[in-house]
Design a protein that fits this description.
Number of helices: 2
CATH class: Mainly Beta
Strand content: over 45%
Helix content: 10-25%
Radius of gyration: 20 Å
Distance between the termini: 35 Å
Structural class: mainly beta
CATH architecture: Beta Barrel
CATH topology: Porin
Largest sheet: 12 strands, antiparallel, barrel
Shape: globular
Number of domains: 1
Strand order of the largest sheet: 1-2-3-5-6-7-8-9-10-11-12-13
């Protein structure tokens, strides 16, 4: 898919989401009613059950393992689909993940990410279709401050990297590992403004090379949540530092409620100083049983 087609899709999806947000905001006639509705909604999320948790906006592309301050019994299914226009080929991403909290403030995630590549471009070194690996992660929220509207968490993500589909049966399916400890800090400013940072080193070690590659990931987020809802519009900035080389992708995004327990997130990708990637888009469907 060429860049201009991705641009058309991005704008079409964004206008759909923005129209949904505008319709909700226009339905409230008075500012005081909006504030009261928002305060009641936040109180319902944070105080209706124990222990206390702060309402935060969660980024859509590099998402959290589970809500910060997760409560025992919470769970969530995610299905994501992405289109990425690379310099020499197109990449199609599909992921399925399950999140759950067995105890208060502790979350776990199981994810299966797939990657497929265009077959109409014949270029040496083009990646092959693959199940990228089995991804397991955990996250513990060690601080929830009601007064400061702040949450802090630490976590660990481990990916068992797999070989491409066409090599199944000929080689060991497990080709290496990715080790990723991380830290999360989030704060809500007032009722609607949210900031969050998700950062940590990623160590990738492949068996055939015996070398370990290290990347420092820094993901900064800014969101505005529509009063009285969990709908938001915001910006996610995915930054990577490797061997003094800095890369960043800006990801404007929007999330809307489809029903009481189904949400949809739409993300555009705008690379900054990335030599092998152009525009991209990503869609995430979230189901909370």
């Amino acid at each position: 898919m060429k860049s201009y087609l991705i641009i058309v899709l991005i704008f079409a999806l964004y206008f759909m989401g923005i129209n949904t947000l505008n319709a909700q905001e226009n339905g409230e006639s008075l500012k005081e009613e909006k504030q009261l509705e928002d305060e009641e909604f936040i109180q319902e999320v944070e105080d209706s059950k124990q222990p206390y948790k702060v309402l935060h906006a969660e980024p859509l592309y590099v998402d959290l393992i589970r809500d910060l301050g997760a409560r025992k019994g919470e769970k969530e299914w995610n299905v994501g689909f992405g289109l990425f226009d690379k310099t020499d080929y197109e990449e199609y991403e599909l992921l399925v993940e399950y999140e759950f909290a067995p105890v208060n403030r502790l979350g776990f995630e199981i994810e299966l990410p797939f990657a497929f590549f265009s077959s109409d471009v014949s270029v040496d070194g083009t990646p092959k279709n693959t199940l990228e690996g089995l991804q397991l992660a955990t996250q513990y929220t060690f601080l929830v401050s009601k007064r400061a509207h702040t949450s802090l968490a630490i976590g660990y993500l481990h990916k068992f990297k797999f070989i491409s589909f066409d090599s199944f049966g000929d080689e060991n399916i497990h080709e290496g590992n990715v080790f990723n400890p991380f830290f999360v800090a989030a704060k809500r400013w007032g009722r609607s403004l949210h900031t969050l940072i998700y950062t940590g080193p990623e160590f990738e070690r492949l068996f055939n090379s015996g070398k370990t590659e290290t990347v420092m990931a820094i993901n900064a987020n800014f969101h505005y949540m529509v009063p009285g809802t969990t709908n938001f519009i915001g910006l996610e900035m995915n930054m990577e530092v490797e061997d003094n080389d800095f890369e960043m992708t800006m990801r404007p995004q929007i999330r809307v409620e489809i029903s009481d327990n189904i949400l949809m997130g739409l993300v555009a990708g705008i690379p900054i100083d990335r030599q092998n990637e152009r525009l991209s888009m990503f869609c995430r469907l979230i189901y909370e049983p």
